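Re-running Sn-glycerol-3-phosphate import ATP-binding protein UgpC to confirm reproducibility after the cluster update. Everything else is unchanged from the original entry.
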Amino acid sequence: MTAVDEVWLDVADGEFLVLLGPSGCGKSTLLRMIAGLLEPSAGRVLLDDADITHTPPQRRDLAMVFQSYALYPHLSVGRNIGFPLRARGLSKAAIRAEVAKVAAMVDLTELLDRKPRELSGGQRQRVALARALVRDPGAFLMDEPLSNLDAKLRATTRAEITALHRRLGATVVYVTHDQVEAMTMATRIALLNEGRVEQTGTPAEVYDEPASVFVARFLGSPPMNLLDATLHTAGNALMARGPELDVALGIEGPGIEGGLPDRAVTLGVRPEHLKVVPPEGAGFRAQVTAVENLGGDEVAHCRTGSAQVSVRGPRPLGLSTGDRVGLSARPEHLHLFDAGSGRRLVWQPAASPADVEPTTV
Ligand SMILES: Nc1ncnc2c1ncn2[C@@H]1O[C@H](COP(=O)(O)OP(=O)(O)OP(=O)(O)O)[C@@H](O)[C@H]1O
Ligand SMILES: [Mg+2]
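Result of re-run:
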């Protein structure tokens, strides 16, 4: 079995790269290869252009922060943080000064004399973070460092790590399966699927232009609606048609005449981009099956043809179970994927007939 396959990733200086993907997709394996805890069966790991594929972990100038804090239980917080410096043989006074500086950064100054067992989960995680910070490494590698924290603490620690990254200009490779962490913390996301990179891009790029059905499904809450459809032309307009849907894709003109006969596609549209309209002549016709109250927003779950579609908007949406509604979305909010490969199709208003054929990216 191959856990990580043909991955090509370039991490720029100062970048906060998030490796995102479902459980078992190979995130930790990839991070451990970067850290030197696992040797790849093929390929190379480069740091600042130097080949470190066979360099032992302790000589890589990378600091790793794990999900489990791995603190020394018999050492005080201060000595836990200072541990990497003692190994380097720094003087006591120098170590104390460095520990004090880093402890202040992560708000641990008052707790330096405590033992790890006398700390909360969030405080322990900050000690682990401080121990990485004190080394002033070339890059930080973090594997789900927040997953043991409760929701509120996760949100505040998330913000702290992001702020630290900005302040220090540090390079971070951060593993998570949590899309909110990825969207809020990353300067760039690499989405992994079964050991391969499905897409890399800024959070906005992967959210707004998912390269595949897999990415479209992975990001967003609820995830993007995906519907089977077939392309056809009505007059000069390019349309996607399926059970209970017939949607204009926003392309008109003689260029598309006959260009795309009956191509099978997956039509995608995010729940927040669907608007409720009268059923007559609407792009999508649907029946509401349930309405969920999220506090600020509401989500209406609907059936259209044989598919499920969700609609998200500020509460109240004004919908009740059983309502028959029309739904519409602006053409720029529609996504097309190849029905077979699941890859995104690019369709642009055409200058000439040859440009009309959707191309797979
Ligand atoms: N030491 C190992 N020996 C054999 N297979 C392994 C080993 N470690 C991980 N795997 C397998 O490799 C694949 C990737 O595992 P990995 O731990 O990298 O996933 P992950 O993306 O970090 O998942 P999670 O989000 O659950 O932590 C999985 O199918 C896993 O079962
Ligand atoms: Mg993992």
